[in-house]
Structures are given as structure tokens and as C-alpha cells.
Amino acid sequence: MKVRTRFAPSPTGYMHIGNLRTALYAYLIAKHDCGDFLLRIEDTDKNREVEGALDIIYNSLKLAGLKHDEGPDIGGPVGPYVQSERVKAGIYMDYAKMLVEKGEAYYCFCDDERLSKLKKTINGEEISFYDKHCLSLSKEEIEANLKAGKPFVIRQNNPTTGTTTFNDDLYGDITVDNSELDDMVLIKSDGYPTYNFANVVDDHLMNITHVVRGNEYLSSAPKYNRLYDAFGWDIPKYIHCPPITDETHHKLSKRHGAASFEDMIALGLLPECILNFVALLGWSPASNEEIFDLNRMIELFDYRRISKSPAVLDMTKLRWMNGKYIEMMDENRYLNLAMPYVDKVITKDLDKKKIALLVKTRIEVFPDIPDKIAFFNDMSSDYDKNLYANEKNKLTKDESASILNDVLNILENTDDFSNDNLFTILKEYGKSRDIKVGKLMWPIRIALSGLEVTPAGATEIASIIGRGETINRIKNAINYIK
RNA sequence: GGCGCCAUGGUCAAGCGGUUAAGACAUCACCCUUUCACGGUGGUAUCACGGGUUCGAUUCCCGUUGGCGUCACCA
Q: Which of A265, A331, A353, A381 has the highest Cβ tally under 10 A?
């Protein structure tokens, strides 16, 4: 049988990073076996609908490179792929009624007031368990209620004794007492199905072979099995994924700053890097590889190696990996992505390409660029004077001043401001005064940048900013040190 | 609170009865060096606890503890 998986997001206007990973895993499972990956939109909650949410889903998948084989936008043999459209087709109601006829489900007319009496509060959490009140309604009563237009829901009729076992490919068999199984709502009073019901019906109708979803559904999974059994359908393979958490081991939330794919993109992280990184949160390949593209992931992916315990999202490592991606990036693409950031701070007529390339191996994300290179354009006139004293080079401020004076003289007598020439003549000067290159260059670099850390050496900077500016900055420095 | 799941360094993790318990990020030291970075070398740091089973447990079983999830006409 052909492997078929699906990604079934709700249009919430937000691509949570855990969802993205779920989509990725579903995609990889399908593609590893040359199967189909479908997109289904679960918009059964009219209250939660968000405008533009669909576009975010499409854009995110596109950005991530996860191409679906069937879906609302491209169609397919088992459509429609949007649940609200399937509601209109009457699909869920028909199936729910089949269950009612079999005695596996029943109409419930309980109102909010009665329902709220069933609730109790434990540790500040509201907990409710339906008491099967409407199960005992007679056929006549039900008919009368229906005829009177009384609002109703359809509930699953679960047994109260015995046990139910379901199997997850990762977690193995999980058995629960049937007394734990609440009679969950299948069809809501507005006629829409609940997630729980729509999922089972659609996964079956769409021939899904592997259901990939978050761990939070583990508890309700036994109830799904009963639904499949009630219909007499084959139960698909379940693959429940462990959660991704923040450093406090809680679910990633909006306030974390990087809980969604969009957040991370906004931070300057590359989509392919995010995908790579997120794949490794809860899964590892049999090989020791760590950096790979989507195609390689498809080859390597074995869902049986997905871990069962939660993973903390480590921003530091994500950024490191992004830096690796930038480092490996071909020059043209790099320049295209980097230039907008270079343009932000370089307004003078400088070799921007050269400047951009200087930081290619020194940034983790593109937004790092401006801070690193702004000094080429303008340097602060108010930097830390103590930089002119450097312990490691055994350099004092006085020595710096003296070096700078000599250097100024040398530079004023040179026209060739190429990096090579500058380095050669300054090195010679150093030799004559018995100063090591590192020590000699230190004050020059400070004078030209005002920074302890720069993306280039002293002569490189000088060659980029040019003769006039170099001499200027050194003059300023000499005055500044005093 | 009931039920369920999980448990290897600070983080991601390999391991699937016998290992000097991989690797990566972070961290520290040193080397290299036209600063920083990169790179190189090395170091610190992990099997939650208690019982079993076994000749032998990180690995299997039970319990404890801890964390998480779930208990909606949300998904």
C-alpha cells in the first residue's frame, strides 16, 4: 500500500515551530517511501478563524520546500481538502448518523447549564466528564426534540467497563480503562464536526496510512480507535511526536520570541536551516551527519528513530547552524541577501561587495551585518581610549601614540593603498623599530575603527576606506589619545 | 486529583546486557594569527533515586521522585 501522510493545520494565522516539524516529519515519512503528502485544512472552529491564515500556511510550506501532492489549492482524488467544504457536503453528519444507528453514538440535548453542573474544579483546573444522561432518551423523545428544533450534539457512546488498547509506532501499546473514556462530542451543535471526529473520518476517507501529530493527542488516541472499530475501518499507524519546549521546559509560546516559523524568519534565520535544525529536535539520523538539505533528509529519515522525550529549542545552536549555512552559501546568493543590510549603513562610495564578503564567515544571521561594518562608513569619535593599551601585545597608550605618529608619516608618503603594499611597508617599519606585526597593527586598527573587534585587519580596513579617510582617522586618533 | 507519557552532560543527542558512555552547540585552556572570527588540539561536564533480574546493568522489570500532557460543542 502506498504511504500517505497529511499535514492538517488549523488556520490560526500562525505556523508554530512544532507544527512545522510535524509537517516535516509527515512529509519525510511519505517521501522516504515515495508516498503522498497531502495538505488538509481543519477549519471546523468558526470562532477561531483568522483572516489571511491560509496564505501563511501556503507560504510557510512553500518557504520550507514541503510540497504537497494533494490539497485545497491543487486538488486531488479525495477532496475537498477543506473541512468546512466537507461539512457542506454533509460528510461528517452522514457518518455520525451511521454511528448513531449502530448504537456507537447518540444525540445529546443537554444545555450549558446542565453541563456546567457536571464540572468540578481540581487544582484550579476545570474538569468535566459527561454522565451519559441523554443516552437513555427514548426514540420518541429524541424525535420530538429534533422536531422541536432543539439544539443537539452527537456524542460517542463509549463503554464504561473493560479496557482499550491502541498502538503507537513509537510508544508501543497503550492500554487504558474504558471508564476513562469520556463520551466526546462528535458533531457540535452548529453542525460542524469536532477535530476528533473529522480527523478520523477524513484520515480514513483520504487513505492516510501514517497519522503524524503532536504528543498532546496521545491521551485521546484510544477514543479514536473505538471510532475506527465502530466503523469497521482499518486503523492507521500512529506516530506521536514529542513536544518542543523552551529553556524552562514549557511549550514554546508567542512570548518566547521564536515560537513560529515566521518569527524565526524575521530573526534572519534561513528557512532551510530552520528546517534542518528542527528536524534534529526529536530525531537523529543513524549516521552522524548534522547538516543536510531536504533531499538528504528524505534519504536519511527513519521515523522509528524519532525520540519520545521532549526537546528544548536551543537558539544558540540554531544561530550557529545558520552561520554555517551562510558560510557554505554560494557567493551570488550571499551577496543578494547581504547587500540590503550593507546598504543600510554604507552610504559612502566604498567597495560594498568587498565589505560584504568580509563578514561572510563572521555572522550568524544577516541582520548581524550592520553593526559589524558600520565603522567603514563612519566611526565613533567617542570610543574607549583604553583600547590603545593592550595587555596581550604588551602595548601601552604611549607606545600606541608613538606608533601612530610614525605610521601617519609613512602613510602620508605613500600613494599605493593596496592591502599588500600597506602591509609590506608597515611590516618593514615594524622591523626597523623591532615591533611585532600584531603589536604594530593593533593601534592602527583601533584608530581606524574605534572597535576592539573588527571583521578585518588594520591594512585591510585602510585599503577599503582609502587614503584620505585613513590619514584623517589616524590624525584624529593621535589627538584623541592625548 | 484521575489517567497517560517521558527521564544519558547546561542544550541537542548516540547507545538498544559487557563501550575508555560517540558526536554537535555552549564553556574553558592552549596553538595558529594582521585584532576578532575561522581553524586546530586538548580539558571540564551526563546515565535522577531505590529495589530487583543477571556472571554482568545506562540498557530489562518494579517502585520512588521529577517533568510534561490530558480530562472543551479548541484543535
A: A265
